[in-house]
Amino acid sequence: MAPEEGYALNRDNWDGRAQVHAASAHYDLEGWVADPGRVGAVVRRDLQILAPHLPEALRDGGDGIPRLDGLDVCHLQCHLGTDTLGLARRGARCTGVDLSPASLRVARDLAERAGADIRYVEANVMDAAGAVGATFDHVHTSIGTLCWLQDLATWGAQVAALLRPGGTVLLRDSHPMINVMGDTDASTMTPAYTYFPLPQGEGFTYADGSTYTDGDSAPISQPRNVEWPHPVGEILGALLGAGLTLEHVGEHQDLPWPAHPAMTPEGEDWVLPEPWRSQVPVALSVVARRPA
């Protein structure tokens, strides 16, 4: 199918997910409103990775979490805006971008009830720079984002166009290696999906009618979605090809959700049991910078 068809299916799919997610304990929107100090586990870990690449005055927020005071931040694929709110609570002036209008309605309502001044823009990431019409000190994209994008070269170009000279981008997502593993049997670690990019016009499509917050008990209105695999080389190449310089590449043993049924909770994250924990990375992080 044409990428535009895949994106249209994904937009409708995420519109349906937004209604389920907004009511779920997983996202706990009321908890975000009630606790003005909450930044979330995802943002906390992201900022710890980003810290060495921030201005020195921002690296130690006094509570183990770096600050973003004075920085303009664009959060791509922001969904319901909980992580966007977390970034804003660390001092950032935030703009969130997502292709799902239903998700953004929830995000705007959350920001208003939490007393946060956040701008939200409805756009496909492939058109983000033109839709947003501004540049930023930092672009943030984290956890469950790249699989929804067909063309990473265009993605990298959009990230670069959103950045001011000297600005940074942080990506953290599931590692392409764990993404290839079969995800139905906790007793095996066996490749089941392709590691390399699919030919133009191809994508993995699913229609299981459920979402990750509540499983089969929460059917969504448009169940079909399309995903595209991206290896590490393609991810890094997209950023380098857009003229950015790499400052950090990390491979991690923890992820905020169980990407494989053998994963178990450890603190706020999920990890594989040994020996797989030492053999298979489950998360990838990258920090890149636009040259000054």
TrEMBL record:
Its recorded name reads Methyltransferase domain-containing protein
For this protein, the record's Gene3D superfamilies field holds: Vaccinia Virus protein VP39
The record's InterPro entries line, in alphabetical order, gives:
Methyltransf_25, SAM-dependent_MTases_sf
Could you tell me which residue ranges the Methyltransferase domain spans? 75-167
